[in-house]
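Hi there,

I know you've been waiting on this one. I reran it after we fixed the sequence typo, so this is the corrected version. Both the input and the resulting structure follow.
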Amino acid sequence: LIDPIEEMGEICEKKDVFFHVDAAFGGFVIPFLQEMGYTKKKFDFEVNGVSSISIDPHKMGMSVIPSGILLLRKREWLDVISVESACTHTRKQMSILGTRPGASAAATYAVMKYLGKEGYMDVVKRCMAATAYAEKKLTEEGFELVVKPETNLIGVKVKDAGKIAEKLSVLGWKVGVDEENGFIRIVFMPHVKKRLIGEFVKDFKSVVS
């Protein structure tokens, strides 16, 4: 499910509210879904009310853990969160002070340069193909989805979601859990093939029944 960012942004703009978009997962998916015609929904600075966006390259950006990006609409907002630093060459820091490796930043830059726009489009295309196949197999087996998937995530309604997830874990399957709303969440990455989906659906059906 892609949140209605345009509608939310309109409200925030009218109310003069700072609007942060958590695109940790979708930030490296939705732009390419738009390009391929899967969705017309907007989530970024095209929406006037959006103030900042967070994106995790270590998710769909195919980079190493941990890698995170914060995007701000206005450069001067960095000054608001900056602190004086007497022990670094920059005089001011916009993040937590301390010595940290730059390996993840370098890796993120490298993988983005290597994949490029076409590479990311191919990644998302493969993920969406796997998602569509899984949706078909799950519904054929009588499972009810939370919503029709808009990205490479599927939510499946189940009773005792926590217990179902534990049983799946014993069989080697790791899924997300929302016990409050009664569903499990399945993420489809580019390495997931039809054979693997078939095996999962078989085990899932066995565990649920």
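Quick highlight: Residues 124-208 form a domain with the Aspartate Aminotransferase, domain 1 fold (CATH 3.90.1150.10).

Best,
R. S.
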